[in-house]
Design goal:
Chain lengths: 573, 347
């Protein structure tokens, strides 16, 4: 038998408060020995549910129909997961199939050593001596690339970095050498540079161990980098199944085409950037001609430092270290960096949510060092803020109209939310939401609609500065594309200056006039998109750009070689 | 499709605006939502509680005699008379009619619960909100005071307070307020703690930060954004505390710090007086007030517990998907679904 998994006509329904929801309807697919099958789709497409059905890991509220045939490790027979009893399922899990989870920090139990957790799988399937289990754990840790495995095997999860933790999760999945690994968004929680390393490891699993991998992801770059075959899912159905090169070269289904088009690529935003720059240059020239002086920058940071206080007797943590930048009126500055680079801290400092501890930061000419809330309050009307998670940034008990009216009421532009309704309707129209949505509650809107409402709230007072903190990172790719388009349109219409914070270089490139790259609290590079992305000078920026997987398998293979040389380079130095 | 995946009764959100007025009331909403055993528990609890409230409201009509009545036209009732046609639950050692005392006792119980919960809920919420949101030294002082109150045995505290408040004398309202206020002191820290913890959690939510970003004042954030989101668990504490209030009242009465029999009927007091009867084979004086306490507490607790289960999506039972006859399901519990459940096909 050549197939590790054969799924035939799988349907899965969930019992919810709102009645039955059919998550998967009639999916059939196969995974061959030693191949990486990527299941792609947006949230709610049923991709995770399909993959989890291979392990029989569905919640109690699910009802499954169809067949999931999983070959045993030695290939002698196959089991139908759907009809297995719980104890038979336990036999299969770990030995024939295992799973790598999305969030490595929650997939590991913090109170046990990683060696213990890896050996857990061995103990569950047969009796092994303590020494033997330990030896195997060390061996597998070495294989997944943990340095000094003899020492590290006795360490606890918190002593590892995020990427290392994901390696350990993979090691635990590998320890019984199953024929198939289901990886549910294995790199989504990781930084781009770490993601590249984990993808490398997964590729090695396939090549060296012959393990088949079912890769669930929404990131087309990851698909292009790792997958052999791709299954595209939409609303619980398979809409397209193809070889990875064929899929990217000539997508057949209209949905697949839309999905691929929506993926932002580096270099797409150049035209707009040039247009905006020309418009600004024109405005500057006009002002100069009228004899007025150049406009003061909206934001100016010089040697900005932000420390978080440490516990008693310990040194504090320096989140932002000696950062200088400026944002001219009407200019979009993109701030890029990995988690912990201090980009969100800078955004919060601009909004007065975090106090700065050194250097100078002026917003609309107001010095933020040692500022008082009372004197800053009137200025808040001139600063809009768009938060990362649109689901959490709305009070769940207020209607959208009430939430959008909040800034108007607070700053005295309207007596009550009802009073502001006319303006709110205009704003909703500006972000392309129907007026009637104003009467809905946040949970009745989809993610993209909520983020548009969030933009409406951000621009309600027509601020001259908008701070957007990862506004699209919680959204699906196609939704993200629409929100980014809307952002660009609003920026053109209202002409606000913006600080656009993101971890995704391609997204920033799409919108920003200038890009600043942060690394561990320091500004390592700043310039126009063309300067930073095409001719990066800093080694970190080079590594960051090379790590970003592009949605094109052929080009990505070439970039992989480039990344390897950069990594070898930085190691050599 | 996307909107349909959002459960309509999401625990952290209000039901959709198109729900009817009755569908949005806290308890009725849960009643509609529940299925199976959880529904049975809730319905039983609601039935007992409704009975309890009805008896309290119509006590003057139901009870054949007054709570302090010792004689009627045909002379004194007589002490410790066994159940008979004239006194269906017999009479107490003091010569009162047991049935009438039990009925009138519900009135006292309801009054004490209402007064105790109303007092503690407002003060507790306000303190919790301010202390949780503002924090700093105020928060620390209030937490220490709350912990100190916890450190006292609650009944001891209630005794001390009832002596202080009533000053030894006993009238209906004096007794009720003494009992209710002493319970209040014990309950305020509970509400305070819950609201404070919720407030601290909500304070870090992005929507509160977003209000801060807009320049909203602290009172506006507290009352518009935090308060309503922090009070979601209150119906549960409210019901559980009601039953505790009832038990504390009975405990006070049992110890002799309650309400005098001439001022109002009180189950705990009757139980106290029935102590010596039990050993001499007179069962009716203790059984009925005891049963009344058990039933009332059981009813309210059932409501509280089922509300608690229904508020948690992980504990809440749902109508199962009806499996088609031809397919084998991995989960055999599908059969547990009630036969009358109709699967609503929304898509």
């Amino acid at each position: 038998m050549n197939d590790v998994v054969e799924i035939t006509d799988l349907s899965i329904s969930f019992a919810t408060d709102g009645g039955t929801v059919r998550a998967v309807g009639g999916v059939s697919l196969t995974v061959r020995k030693g191949e990486v099958l990527a299941i792609v789709g947006e949230s709610g497409s049923g991709k995770s549910v399909t993959a989890k059905s291979i392990l029989g890991l569905l919640p109690e509220t699910a009802t499954t129909e169809g067949a999931v045939l999983l070959a045993s490790r030695d290939g002698s027979h196959a089991n139908d997961i759907v009809s297995l009893s719980p104890s038979q399922l336990r036999e299969v899990r770990g030995t024939d199939v295992s799973m790598v989870f999305q969030e490595p920090s929650t997939a590991l139990n913090p109170v046990f050593t990683v060696g213990w957790q890896i050996a857990e799988g061995l103990r569950a399937h047969g009796t092994v001596s303590k020494a033997e289990a330990r030896r195997e754990a060390i061996e597998i840790l070495r294989k997944v690339g943990i340095p000094e495995p003899e020492v590290r095997v006795d360490h606890y999860p918190h002593q590892f970095s995020g990427g290392q933790k994901q390696r350990i999760v993979i090691a635990a999945a590998l320890v019984l050498n199953p024929g198939l690994i289901v990886a549910d968004e294995p790199t989504t929680a990781l930084d781009v540079t770490v993601q590249a390393e984990i993808l490398d490891l997964l590729r090695r699993l396939r090549d060296e161990f012959g393990t088949a991998i079912v890769l669930i992801t929404h990131n087309m770059g990851v698909v292009a980098d790792l997958a052999d075959r791709v299954v595209v899912m939409y609303e619980g159905m398979v809409v397209e199944e193809a070889d990875v090169k064929t899929l990217f070269a000539s997508p057949q289904d209209p949905y697949t085409r839309r999905l691929l088009d929506a993926v932002p690529r580096i270099g797409q935003g150049r035209v707009h950037t040039a247009e905006r720059e020309a418009a600004r240059a024109g405005a500057r020239a006009a002002r100069a001609a009228e004899g007025e002086s150049a406009l003061a920058p909206v934001v100016e940071a010089s040697h900005l430092t932000i420390d978080y206080p440490g516990r008693f007797g310990r040194k504090g943590f320096r989140a932002v270290d000696d950062v200088s930048f400026r944002i001219a009126p009407g200019e979009v500055l993109g701030l890029v960096g990995e988690s912990g680079s201090g980009k969100t801290t800078i955004g919060r400092a601009l909004g007065g949510l975090t106090r700065i501890t050194g250097g100078s930061l002026t917003v609309h000419g107001f010095e933020m060092l040692g500022f008082s809330e009372r004197r800053f309050k009137p200025l808040r009307a001139d600063i809009g803020f768009v938060f990362q998670d649109p689901a959490a940034s709305f009070n769940p008990l207020l209607t959208i109209a009430d939430a959008v009216a909040e800034p108007l009421v607070i700053h005295g532009r309207a007596e009550s939310p009802r009073d502001a309704r006319k303006r709110v309707d205009e704003l909703l129209e500006a972000v392309q939401l129907p007026r009637s949505f104003g009467d809905r509650f946040p949970h009745e809107l989809s993610g993209g609609q909520r983020q548009r409402a969030s933009l409406a709230r951000g621009i309600a007072l027509e601020p001259s500065l908008l701070i957007a903190d990862e506004p699209t990172s919680a959204l699906d790719v196609s939704v993200q594309a629409r929100v980014l388009e809307l952002f660009a349109e609003l920026q053109r219409a209202f002409g606000f200056a913006a600080l656009f914070i993101s971890h995704d270089l391609a997204v920033v490139d799409l919108l920003a006039d200038r890009i600043a790259v942060l690394y561990r609290g320091r500004l390592v590079e700043e310039g126009t998109g063309a300067e930073v992305l095409d001719h990066p000078t800093d080694p970190y920026t080079r590594r960051l750009i090379a790590s970003l997987p592009v949605p094109d398998p052929v080009e990505q293979a070439a970039r992989r070689a480039e990344l390897a040389s950069i990594q070898a380079d930085s190691r050599g130095r | 499709m996307a909107t349909e995946l959002v459960p309509s009764g999401h625990p952290t959100t209000l039901p959709p605006a198109n729900g009817s007025f009755w569908g949005r009331l806290p308890v009725l909403k849960q009643l509609r939502q529940s299925v199976g055993l959880q529904r049975g528990m809730l319905v039983a609890g609601l039935a007992i509680t409704a009975l309890f409230l009805l008896v309290a409201a119509f006590a003057p009509l139901i009870a054949p005699y007054g709570f302090a009545q010792l004689r009627d036209d045909s002379g004194p009732f007589g002490a410790q008379q066994p159940p008979s046609a004239t006194h269906i639950m017999g009479t107490t050692v003091g010569g009162y009619d047991v049935f009438s005392r039990v009925i009138w006792g519900t009135q006292t119980a309801v009054l004490v619960i209402v007064v105790a919960v109303v007092f503690s809920i407002f003060i507790g919420i306000l303190l919790g909100l301010v202390s949780g949101y503002i924090g700093g030294w105020l928060d620390r002082v209030l937490v220490v005071i709350g912990d100190a109150v916890y450190a006292f045995p609650s009944l001891l505290l209630a005794i001390v307070l009832s002596i202080v408040i009533s000053g030894g004398q006993s009238s209906l309202w004096g007794g009720i307020f003494a009992a209710a206020l002493s319970i209040t002191v014990v309950f305020i820290p509970q509400y305070y703690r819950v609201i404070r913890a919720e407030t601290i959690r909500i304070k870090a939510e992005p929507y509160v930060e977003s209000a801060k970003m807009l320049g909203a004042s602290a009172p506006r954030i507290m009352f518009r954004h935090v308060l309503r989101n922090a009070t979601r668990t209150l119906p549960i504490i409210f019901t559980l505390n009601s039953s505790e209030a009832l038990l504390t009242l009975a405990g006070l009465g049992f110890l002799g710090f309650g309400i005098e029999p001439t001022a109002a009927a009180e189950w705990g007091y009757d139980l106290n007086k029935a102590l010596s009867d039990v050993t001499s084979g007179i069962w009716w004086t203790a059984l009925y007030p005891g049963l009344a306490i058990v039933l009332a507490v059981l009813g309210i607790t059932l409501v509280g517990e089922s509300l608690n289960d229904l508020a948690d999506p992980r504990l809440r039972a749902r109508r199962r998907v009806k499996a088609r006859a031809t397919t084998a399901t991995t989960t055999a519990t599908a059969a547990a679904a009630a036969p009358d459940t109709t699967t609503e096909e929304k898509s």
